Amino acid sequence: MTDRILRKAIEKIDGMPRQELKRIMVSQLMTSDLLQSLLENSREGHCVLQDGLIRYANVSFGTMIPTNRLYLSRSEGHHLDEIVTDEQVLDYLMGLDVDDEETSREFSFQQGSEVRIISIVNRRLEVQDAVYLDIVTRDVTSARRDQARLRRSESLAAMTTMAAGVAHEIKNPLAAMQIHIQLLRKAFQRKSSLTLEDAERYLGVLEEEIGHLNGIAVDFLFAVRPMNLSPSKQRIDGVISSLEDFVRPELEEHGIRFVVNVQPFLPQLMIDSNYLRQALLNIVKNAMNAMENGGRLDIDVWCEGDYVKIAVKDTGCGIDAEHLGKIFEPYFTTKASGTGLGLTVVYKIVKEHDGDISVESTVGKGTTFTISLPVPSDERMAIENIEEVGDGHDTGGR
Domain of 378? Predict the structure, then answer.
């Protein structure tokens, strides 16, 4: 509104009364001062660039990241490298362009006795015929601390549940071992000595239960130990192909038709292929157990928005609605055998990849697990270009 008034005033300035011109200028100055005050007192830092030069930078920008305070109050017209003193931040900012899509990156700085985490976001500003690059800084230290506390609370709750599960799981093997030790002692009492053949029936059970206990311990450690992921940018096709080669013979042996459909031109993802393959293998094993009399297993992979989706669909017995909300909990299982940690591990691997997993199931018809993995920001632009090239082509399948 004020811009339109000012433009009309400029058009008619030659014939405008002095008092009216003064009134308009005072009004504009008040508005400008108000906006300046809002920006200067904002908790967000702003540094506006045009053609590599700073057009505006507020106080918050200079206090959140390391800057040369000598220039901060008069930064207009200066280059970034005269203001920003941190090399990593400067390299990042110098690499940004006004036409880049909006991205966010976080940096940590030591300020006094504490470490502050600052998020830097770039965005394009268009004002009339001019284009600017607005660099926005936000202090996300509290938010990250809250997230860390939440993760610790969730981890503690999960550990408590798992500890209770371990205690429950080891009861039966320990009870069986105790009974057979008592039987072995009674056998010694009846005979002054026992042959290996006499003791074998007791020793065999003891050995079997020790193996069972060892399996519980190994699974527990795998579930609670931090995963040392080594993610690298790669295509999901290789993981799916490796999994297919490994499981197809066993699935076909069980009378299960295996169909894999991978959309072409998928973007690269930041993944640890070994861990992701293990997660998918656990889901496939579950599906195989659910189709005792054969059936069909489909793995579909496609890109949807900012995510690559992997759906594993079986035609097995399905899962009761009352159990769906518990299947990722440690030691929850409806099978007569198994530790109940398989899907817990799947959930953990997916979350370590910053992904998500959901499940849909109908008793008597089957179950579908869907994993969503985020596409790196630098790959999203490539998706748009590829979609234009590949428009109208069918998805591929094997």
Answer: 232-390
